Amino acid sequence: MNSTGREAPARSATADREIAISRGIDAPPELVFKAFTEVRHLSRWWGPEGFTTTTRAFEFRVGGVWDFVLHGPDGTDYSEWITWTEIVPPERIAMLHGEYRGDPNAFESVLTFAPDGETTRIEMLTVFPTKELRDEAIKKHGAIEAGRQTLGNLAAYVAEIVRKGVEG
């Protein structure tokens, strides 16, 4: 116990390997979850600003795979591979994300979709295998800003669906 009489907040055992990003989105969790889990939506907003996505395979279920190419604005293509490890509609998704099946540098991400009045608070917690891989992702690939841009693209896409009053 510290001098204020309150215990210090618990520190996660993986804190030095984590990146946590959150954002409010003006739509109910069910719609935000749907935009995150159906390839017809996902392929239209996934990735940082200026990136596009080409899906090679998509099967949204625990153990299923999303195999895709992320096309950078400079013409660079990045092979990506995701498998879902937990799905709790419309509250939570956990996944393993790497460049290919069996990638030893793959990282885990947990997304939570929490109702906040008429909106959704989405939180994305990414845990890397090592602190060095997390630091490299931040420094070399701008992982924090890229994550913010990706959730920003999701928010803009969902806002468009809400504005049109239909499901894209």
TrEMBL record:
* TM region positions: none
Q: Which residues form a coiled coil?
A: none
Q: Where is the Activator of Hsp90 ATPase homologue 1/2-like C-terminal domain?
A: 26-158
- Tell me where on the tree of life, at the top rank, the source sits: Bacteria
Q: Which family does it belong to?
A: Belongs to the AHA1 family.
The name of this protein is: SRPBCC family protein
What organism does this protein naturally occur in? Streptomyces durmitorensis
